[in-house]
């Protein structure tokens, strides 16, 4: 996966950030008068490596660049609202801002998972191309607008691993009867392959694995997964993460709270989110590589690739799931059409760049 990406910052936005930083020279009373406090609720345990790191860095960046005019305080999952209630909290104004993942809102909006990832979908670079250049941001805005929420990309955990399991998976039949923590559309794919798919907040996964109430779990990559202790409660770690080939986190902001900000601070929030989308991915790629090396050296967990037959079956079911949902939901159908068009266009470019270079990778 290539990681050379461009942060798009308009002259207007650069000027806005510069203006916000220049506010530091304002007199104390003026600053005090303008100071605003936002509560950021998250779906992650406090300070969790990966998404928790992104949330903290985003809050710190907004606070510092605004010279304290907009102070963002971070609350981990359960500290102010539960992990899966972040969207509602921001929508209702209980919190002004949230850091989470769109795939948690499939029950509210079937198409929401697109903005994190879908099975066998775009990789992180392709996903950002769709959002920033291929029309994805406008579609995302329209999807969330009825709830009074404005979304931004704000972090990326990269492509996930396939998951942790306590028994080997050698055939499609081995999936039958497994109880797996898995979220997003990948959960429906695995369900159709015989898995009992359950949705658990990130902070509850380790306990369920350790207690044996689930047989397997997917979350992110080795950096975040090992920090959560999954390697101490599982025997096998599978790849690739076909169910989540991208890991975009979202920053969601209450639209009324956003509109109440001066224009320069509105732009500052957008710039800070764009910055975290890139920084988070760079950090995740590096830390996952380091964590994978440690996991291999430790030797307590067996790393395995999903058998080709399992990947083939999962791909076929993924197409069925997507087409079925498109037939039932007009919004889903429109987003799927946009997504597939971008996939086709990017595949043409990748075919003349990444494909030929693959055999020469690794000097």
Characterize the structure shown:
The chain has 363 residues and is of the alpha/beta class. It has a domain at 11-157 and 245-287: D-Maltodextrin-Binding Protein, domain 2. 47% of the residues lie in helices and 14% in strands. The protein is built from 14 helices and 11 strands. It has helices spanning 11-22, 28-34, 51-65, 86-92, 124-132, 136-144, 185-192, 205-211, 222-227, 255-259, 263-298, 308-328, 330-352, 354-357; strands at 36-42, 70-75, 97-100, 149-156, 163-165, 179-181, 196-198, 216-217, 236-239, 248-254, 302-305. The protein is globular and about 60 Å long. The model is unreliable at 1-31 (pLDDT under 50).
Question: Which tags fit this structure?
Answer:
globular; six-stranded mixed β-sheet; 363 residues; alpha/beta; disordered N terminus; five-stranded mixed β-sheet; 11 strands; D-Maltodextrin-Binding Protein, domain 2
Question: Can you give me a brief rundown of this structure?
Answer:
The protein is an alpha/beta fold and 363 residues long. Helices cover 47% and strands 14% of the residues.
Helix and strand run: HHEHEHEHHEEEHEHEHEEHHEHHH
CA-based shape: globular
Number of β-strand runs: 11
End-to-end Cα distance: 15 Å
| Contiguous runs where pLDDT drops below 50 for at least 5 residues | 1-31
Which structural class fits the helix and strand makeup? alpha/beta
Helix content: 40-55%
Rg of Cα set? 21 Å
């Amino acid at each position: 996966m290539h990681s050379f990406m461009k942060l798009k910052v308009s002259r207007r936005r650069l000027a806005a950030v510069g203006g916000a930083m220049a506010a530091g020279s304002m007199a104390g009373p003026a600053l005090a008068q303008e100071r605003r406090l936002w509560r950021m609720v998250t779906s992650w345990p406090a300070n969790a490596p990966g998404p928790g790191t992104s949330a903290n860095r985003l809050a710190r960046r907004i606070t510092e660049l605004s010279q304290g005019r907009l102070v963002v305080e971070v609350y981990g999952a359960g500290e102010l609202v539960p992990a899966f209630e972040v969207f509602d909290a921001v929508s209702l104004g209980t919190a002004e801002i949230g850091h989470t993942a769109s795939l948690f809102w499939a029950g509210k909006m079937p198409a929401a998972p697109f903005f994190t990832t879908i099975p066998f979908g775009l990789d992180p670079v392709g996903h950002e191309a769709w959002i920033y250049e291929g029309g994805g941001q406008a579609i995302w805005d329209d999807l969330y607008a009825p709830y009074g929420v404005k979304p931004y990309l704000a972090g990326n955990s990269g492509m996930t691993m396939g998951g942790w399991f306590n028994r080997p998976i050698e055939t499609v039949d081995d999936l039958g009867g497994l109880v797996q923590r898995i979220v997003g559309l990948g959960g429906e794919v695995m369900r159709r392959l015989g898995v009992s798919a359950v949705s658990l907040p990130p902070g509850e996964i380790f306990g369920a694995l350790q207690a044996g109430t689930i047989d397997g779990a997917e979350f992110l990559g080795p950096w975040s997964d090992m920090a959560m202790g999954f390697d101490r409660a599982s025997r096998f770690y599978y790849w690739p993460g076909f169910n989540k080939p991208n890991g975009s986190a979202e920053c969601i902001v209450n639209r009324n709270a956003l509109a109440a900000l001066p224009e320069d601070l509105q732009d500052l929030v957008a710039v800070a989110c764009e910055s975290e989308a890139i920084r988070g991915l760079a950090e995740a790629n590096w830390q996952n590589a380091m964590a994978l090396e440690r996991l291999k050296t430790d030797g307590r967990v067996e790393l395995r690739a999903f058998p080709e037959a399992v990947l083939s079956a999962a791909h076929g079911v993924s197409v069925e799931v997507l087409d079925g949902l498109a037939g039932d939901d007009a919004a889903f159908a429109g987003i799927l059409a946009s997504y597939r068009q971008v996939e086709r266009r990017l595949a043409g470019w990748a075919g003349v760049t990444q494909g030929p270079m693959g055999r020469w990778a690794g000097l």
